[in-house]
Design a protein that fits this description.
The structure is a single chain. The protein has 168 residues and is of the alpha+beta class. Helix content is 26%, strand content 44%. The chain has 4 helices and 8 strands. Strands 2-3-4-7-6-5 form a 6-stranded antiparallel barrel. Strand 3 and strand 4 form a beta hairpin. The mean pLDDT is 84.
């Protein structure tokens, strides 16, 4: 796999893919220094030059909020197997209760978790400012990837298929 630095155009594509993927795992450092990964739904992605901000709705009284407040360093992982897109983003989280931002991002689907709408007293916003990211994208279809892996297994080599991009 070839490793390159993501260009400005690559980063634009990465932010779009993250927004389209929607679901991520948010990893926090919990009390007792244990790593905890939980599924979250991306509400909004704001590209800011080389980096960006990713927004989520979380319960104000939940463990994610407590963990992020105690240790704001977090990791987001996105996987879209159908699109062959894999991303890992690290950043700094901040929990807030910005009612205007909540209304801006609100959709009817969020009522499943926050029945009182964007004014729900248990609704918190998690803002993650990304400072480093990596993506992995195979350069061939799944059949060719499988063939490449099979050949590598037989020849005791490493598959060379794909591109690994990094950005800060």
């Amino acid at each position: 796999m070839t490793t390159t630095s993501a260009t400005a155009e690559d980063r634009k594509d990465i932010w779009k893919q993250i927004e389209d993927t929607r679901f991520a795992f948010l990893t926090t450092l919990s009390e007792g220094n244990g790593l905890r990964a939980r599924p979250v739904t991306t509400q909004k992605v704001e590209a800011e030059g080389d980096t960006g901000v990713v927004w989520f709705f979380i319960p104000q009284d939940g463990e994610m909020a407590k963990d992020a407040q105690a240790n704001p360093r977090v990791l987001l992982t996105y996987t879209d197997g159908d699109e062959n897109f894999y991303a890992s983003l690290s950043g700094t989280a901040r929990v807030s209760s910005d009612a205007a931002k909540a209304r801006e991002m609100w959709s009817k689907m969020n009522e499943a978790w926050f029945p009182d709408g964007p004014g729900d007293p248990n609704l918190a916003l998690l803002r993650v400012k990304i400072d480093h990211g990596e993506t992995w994208e195979p350069s061939t279809n799944k059949m060719m990837q499988f063939l490449s892996i099979a050949v590598a297994a037989v020849t005791h080599t490493t598959p060379k298929d794909g591109v690994h991009k990094t950005f800060q």
